[in-house]
Design goal:
By secondary structure, the chain is of the alpha+beta class. It is 42% helix and 19% strand. The protein contains 18 helices and 24 strands. The strands form eight sheets. It has a seven-stranded mixed beta sheet with strand order 18-19-17-16-22-23-24, with helices on both faces. The N and C termini lie far apart (59 Å).
Length: 513
């Protein structure tokens, strides 16, 4: 069984010994935004939803509790859960997408040093990461901070409710800015720099290891058996990678959701020298992963559809077809390269390779020759170029990529898959199972309880790649246009900053009137 404590709900998934999915259920819960840029959830909501989802898949599948060999956990990374000495939650979880801690990130960087941070943790300190949130609580909620006895990540709070034990895993811990990613253990240097007691942190295991067993009280609530093994599990991105078979060097995944994630397994601990890629422990012993994140991937196409696709949305309503499919059919008649039209996909700022909240989207190269179909294709190509930026950073670190595996809503488009294969100049495939991180957690549980000897074996048995697309003749065209795309951000960045300053000054003027 795999359990995913996600951003919008808790998903439970049941597989058989060969990895075939037997049942899934998701129970949603709310997120609160008590102030602009804040994002919080109640950990107790995760537990209530987890219990509900487990109950539903047991009823749906007809599987009896004695046949559940083990439970694997995954979930949203970076969230801060604070418990007191009695194990009670002290405040709502500060989530991964909370942006309140910019000042604390700068303070941690000053205390430790930017270069040393990369050496220790593999990443710069970002507002989404856990360490800056701890510092924020110490400075803004001292009455809460003085009661802290344990610091947990979201999935590990659910583990605590399942077992009564405090454990984490190396992949999830990698996203806290408190973990020595190269040595796969908590960093005493980071803890000392931030005055955080080591006793607050859970013991960490490798992802496929059994960490604890289901408690009697949790058995009564969930319907599972007392003593059922609970495996370490992984953060959502590492678990997602296990679920798509990205567990050996040479394979890369591209997830085309609202954001875009480029993920590669690495046999060695590699750190991008400027911190442009995330470097985390993977869900396999002695393996790491590199990850780049684009903030508006499928989100760019959705924005385009909602803003400029009125005709296609109306046609979709009349014909009972998908508006995205209509748009891509129109775009398919445009030659690769869009006759010189480029799109920068920075609708939400950017994260990789340009960590710039002021970056903005743009169409560049418009002429009277271009029509709407050109603009549609330019969006698909621009997102693909932006994702290749992460791939190039990985190649610069010595990774040789043999196959790309695409998932997410955007990967349903045959045109977009071909564009990606051409832009990446690499074979692209899709995977048959699309259940995401919960599926990876279930596979890790199978390894932990001995159904598979290794994670690699589990993935070779359960994860099947299909729908292979080879780079076509358009690859040479994209090879010519990609450098032009890369030149645009450096040229426009000063104007992005100037525009942000201008907007800010006008907003301040209006506030004083």
């Amino acid at each position: 069984m795999g359990i995913d404590v996600g951003t919008t709900g808790a998903k439970a998934l049941l597989t058989d010994a060969d990895g075939a999915v037997k049942a899934t259920a998701t129970t949603e819960y709310p997120m609160s935004t008590p102030q602009p840029l804040w994002a919080e959830q109640q950990p107790t909501d995760w537990w209530t939803a987890t219990v509900s989802s487990i109950d539903r898949i047991l009823k749906q599948s007809g599987v009896t509790p004695d046949r559940i060999a083990g439970v694997g956990l995954t979930g949203q990374m970076h969230g801060l859960v604070l418990l007191d000495a009695q194990g009670d939650v002290l405040r709502p979880c500060i989530m991964w997408n909370d942006q309140r801690t910019g000042e604390q990130c700068a303070e941690i960087t000053r205390r430790v040093g930017a270069e040393r941070l990369l050496q220790l943790t593999g990443n710069p300190v970002l507002p989404g990461f856990t360490a800056s949130k701890i510092l924020w609580v110490s400075q803004h909620e001292p009455h809460v901070y003085k009661e802290v006895a344990k610091v947990l990540l979201p999935k590990d709070y659910v583990r605590y409710r399942l077992t009564g034990e405090f454990f984490g895993d190396v992949s999830d811990a990698s996203g806290t800015s408190l973990f020595n990613v190269g040595r796969r253990r908590w960093s005493r240097e980071m803890l000392q720099a931030l005055d955080i007691p080591h006793s607050w942190l859970p013991e960490v295991t490798e992802s496929p290891e059994v960490s604890a067993q289901l408690s009697t009280s949790a058995a009564g609530e969930t319907g599972l058996l007392d003593g059922t093994p609970v495996v370490g599990g992984a953060g959502d991105q590492a678990a997602q990678a296990v679920g798509t078979g990205i567990v050996t060097e040479g394979l890369l995944s591209v997830t085309l959701g609202t954001s875009g994630v480029v993920f590669a397994a690495s046999d060695n601990y590699r750190v991008e020298p400027n911190g442009k890629l995330h470097a985390f422990c993977h869900a396999l012993p002695d393996t790491w992963h590199l990850m780049g994140v684009m903030l508006s991937a499928g989100g760019s196409f959705r924005w385009y559809r909602d803003t400029l696709g009125d005709a296609e949305l109306a046609e979709a309503e009349r014909s009972k077809r998908d508006a995205y499919q209509i748009l891509t059919e129109e775009a398919a008649r445009v030659p690769p390269g869009c006759e010189g039209l480029l799109f920068l996909p920075y609708l939400s700022g950017e994260r990789t390779p340009h960590a710039d909240p002021n970056a903005r989207a743009a169409f560049v190269g418009l002429t009277l020759r271009h029509d709407k179909a050109h603009m549609t294709r330019a969006v698909l190509e621009g997102v693909s170029y932006g994702l290749r930026d992460s791939l190039e950073l990985m190649r610069d670190l010595g990774l040789s990529i043999e196959q790309v595996r695409a998932s997410g809503g955007g990967a349903r488009s045959s045109l977009w898959r071909q564009i990606l294969a051409d832009v990446f100049e690499t074979e692209l495939a899709t995977v048959e199972v699309t259940e995401g991180a919960a599926y990876g957690a279930a596979l890790l549980a199978g390894v932990g309880v001995g159904l598979h000897p290794t994670v690699i074996h589990a993935c070779e048995t359960a994860v099947k790649a299909s729908g292979r697309v080879e780079p076509g003749p358009a690859a040479s065209t994209y090879a010519d246009f990609y450098p032009r795309y890369r030149s645009l951000y450096p040229a426009l960045a000063p104007e992005f900053q100037a525009m942000a300053d201008l907007i800010s000054s006008h907003a301040e003027s209006e506030d004083t009137e």
